[in-house]
Amino acid sequence: MDSFQSKIVPVGTLLAILVVAWYAFAVVLNGPFQRDLDRRAGETPGQLEFLMRTWSQPKPTLPAPHQVAQNFYKSTFTVKPWSNRSLIYHAWVTLSSTFVGFAFGAALGILIAVGIVHFASLDRSLMPWIITSQTIPILAIAPMVVVVFASIGITGLFPKALISTYLSFFPVAVGMVKGLRSPEVMHLDLMRTYNATRPQVFWKLRVPASLPFLFASMKVAVAASLVGAIVAELPTGAVAGIGAKLLNGAYYSQTIDIWAALVAGSLVAVMLVALVGLAGRITDYAMGGRPA
Amino acid sequence: MRASLPWQIALALLAVVTGGVLQLATAPGGGPGNVWPALGLVALAAAGTLTMGGRPVAQAVLLFIGAHGAAWLLLSGVAGHEGQAGASFYLALSGAWLLAWRCVTVLSMLKPASPNEKRLLGLIIPLIFGAWVLILWEAIVRGAGIPFLLLPPPSAIAERIGVSTAVLAADFRQTVLKAVLAGYIIGCGAGFIAAIAADRFVFLRRGLLPIGNMAAALPIIGVAPIMVMWFGFDWPSKAAVVVIMTFFPMLVNTVVGLSASGHMERDLMRTYASGYWPTLFKLRLPAAMPFIFNALKINSTLALIGAIVAEFFGTPVVGMGFRISTEVGRMNIDMVWAEIAVAALAGTLFYGVVALVERAVTFWHPSIRGG
């Protein structure tokens, strides 16, 4: 009951206010065009009729929530999942490169972190660049990577996954360095008194201590990976994927399609983060962590 | 004093010997020039360091000269022989690279006493690493003759930056000075005000915080096409994307930061009979500053990304994102790299300025006082 009082009620109220505001904005933004339409058609609809019409334009400036929901439902559940019109198909295309990129990115990030923790020279020379690279708008190279690979005949999953890899390895590397260094001096000293070798210290102390950091940074990385995959789909000439769906919608002013694709992308993002969170909790439980 | 042979030096000497043998086997005049002088320089420097065991600074200087002199010789020798580099060229290059690695290792082991020397060292080591990324890139791209379309060498990119400064400056003005700055200021300001409101009203905070946390995971960049439709092709639509992207990190971080002040301090303010606003301005906002600057730093990168990606969806004929997407289409890859270099520089500078302001504002914080 406590979480109901302190969380669900406020969030629900805010979301309800958001939906009402959305409808109001839809009227404000679609109103001028609708008035124009009515005037040309020589109609003078009543107040209520006018409202309904602003909420049901085929290409509105701001589609009403129910229009987005309808479009989302239609293109998710009523068409075949493998057809070009299905959001599931497009989400799957984006997801597959997200997954591949994320897997490689996480592996690379962990490797780099292990190197940094074990070699002082790597720490001193590489770490400042990793931090600097966080300040660089990496996504800007996405179109170039895709087009350059296409020019030598490599298209499809690989270039997109490469961008996802690039985006997702930074958070993992930084988080893992922090995690592998998180054991306290006391624990390291204890390992010394056991005469533990370096690999033993690594596997029995550093790795378990780093896991919470790993999962926290993987949550950030998987979201970044999805953004990378979506942006990488923009310059491919809009073939398939959430990004392609966005670009197509922008070209043909299919605003409802854009919003539906956005909803799909957001759902995928929430799902991915939840999956990583779940994996983290299962790992924690398997290692003997119990909720306090 | 342990008389030992560091493995980088051993490998470098091995590379020199094999490289020399292979170079003897190649026909004179074929392949890049200057391989012999480079090999000699690497061998001299490597052998030289072995004789000066106890003097790490002298070792580092010698290694530095050896590595970069050899690299310079190799790079100047490759001109006119693009794509003809043989194994001896790469062996000489890797020999020089191993010397540089040894140099960094020696420098990392130094324990300078004065803070100025420490800072200098903290600057030199990453600079050597960065220089070697460029050297290897240049040498491999030109030595192996990788097509210009695939990956232009850094020298060509630098040349392109020099030639098209005017275009790059116009793009920089359009994207960074107009879209990014406007969006950043509005977005961070709105996030800050929303955070104060959320702090004032508990109900609002409980509702906004989960939504804000969730928004961090969402691909917000996807609203770009919608903003372009609403606000037109020019910079206001890009600024709008930046506003949306920067709002939530600022909101979440400020709300968290406002609860960072300790109970003791807040109790002290109560005993002074200080009201909500004086407490906010005199205690809680200063205490929240590290968190607020954290958000400002995150947002500096997000803002650039947002503006550049939003330009992929339609712009007037100027702007960094526009230039990148059109020059990619025209296969002017060196121009794209030049634009990316400018973007990287802009991002780093932006971040650096925020970090400097942070040092000035949160001078009291342990992380800055101690460093």
UniProtKB/TrEMBL annotation, chain A:
<keyword id="KW-0813">Transport</keyword>
<keyword id="KW-0472">Membrane</keyword>
<feature type="transmembrane region" description="Helical">
    <location>
        <begin position="213"/>
        <end position="238"/>
    </location>
</feature>
<keyword id="KW-1133">Transmembrane helix</keyword>
<dbReference type="Pfam" id="PF00528">
    <property type="entry name" value="BPD_transp_1"/>
</dbReference>
<feature type="transmembrane region" description="Helical">
    <location>
        <begin position="258"/>
        <end position="280"/>
    </location>
</feature>
<comment type="similarity">
    <text>Belongs to the binding-protein-dependent transport system permease family.</text>
</comment>
<keyword id="KW-0812">Transmembrane</keyword>
<feature type="transmembrane region" description="Helical">
    <location>
        <begin position="87"/>
        <end position="116"/>
    </location>
</feature>
<protein>
    <submittedName>
        <fullName>ABC transporter permease</fullName>
    </submittedName>
</protein>
<feature type="transmembrane region" description="Helical">
    <location>
        <begin position="12"/>
        <end position="30"/>
    </location>
</feature>
<dbReference type="InterPro" id="IPR035906">
    <property type="entry name" value="MetI-like_sf"/>
</dbReference>
<keyword id="KW-1003">Cell membrane</keyword>
<dbReference type="GO" id="GO:0055085">
    <property type="term" value="P:transmembrane transport"/>
</dbReference>
<dbReference type="InterPro" id="IPR000515">
    <property type="entry name" value="MetI-like"/>
</dbReference>
<dbReference type="GO" id="GO:0005886">
    <property type="term" value="C:plasma membrane"/>
</dbReference>
<feature type="transmembrane region" description="Helical">
    <location>
        <begin position="136"/>
        <end position="158"/>
    </location>
</feature>
<feature type="domain" description="ABC transmembrane type-1">
    <location>
        <begin position="87"/>
        <end position="280"/>
    </location>
</feature>
Automatic annotation (TrEMBL), chain B:
<feature type="transmembrane region" description="Helical">
    <location>
        <begin position="302"/>
        <end position="324"/>
    </location>
</feature>
<keyword id="KW-0812">Transmembrane</keyword>
<dbReference type="Pfam" id="PF00528">
    <property type="entry name" value="BPD_transp_1"/>
</dbReference>
<keyword id="KW-0813">Transport</keyword>
<feature type="transmembrane region" description="Helical">
    <location>
        <begin position="181"/>
        <end position="203"/>
    </location>
</feature>
<feature type="transmembrane region" description="Helical">
    <location>
        <begin position="120"/>
        <end position="140"/>
    </location>
</feature>
<keyword id="KW-1133">Transmembrane helix</keyword>
<feature type="domain" description="ABC transmembrane type-1">
    <location>
        <begin position="190"/>
        <end position="361"/>
    </location>
</feature>
<feature type="transmembrane region" description="Helical">
    <location>
        <begin position="35"/>
        <end position="53"/>
    </location>
</feature>
<feature type="transmembrane region" description="Helical">
    <location>
        <begin position="87"/>
        <end position="108"/>
    </location>
</feature>
<feature type="transmembrane region" description="Helical">
    <location>
        <begin position="215"/>
        <end position="233"/>
    </location>
</feature>
<feature type="transmembrane region" description="Helical">
    <location>
        <begin position="239"/>
        <end position="258"/>
    </location>
</feature>
<feature type="transmembrane region" description="Helical">
    <location>
        <begin position="60"/>
        <end position="81"/>
    </location>
</feature>
<dbReference type="InterPro" id="IPR000515">
    <property type="entry name" value="MetI-like"/>
</dbReference>
<protein>
    <submittedName>
        <fullName>NitT/TauT family transport system permease protein</fullName>
    </submittedName>
</protein>
<keyword id="KW-1003">Cell membrane</keyword>
<dbReference type="InterPro" id="IPR035906">
    <property type="entry name" value="MetI-like_sf"/>
</dbReference>
<dbReference type="GO" id="GO:0055085">
    <property type="term" value="P:transmembrane transport"/>
</dbReference>
<keyword id="KW-0472">Membrane</keyword>
<dbReference type="GO" id="GO:0005886">
    <property type="term" value="C:plasma membrane"/>
</dbReference>
<feature type="transmembrane region" description="Helical">
    <location>
        <begin position="336"/>
        <end position="357"/>
    </location>
</feature>
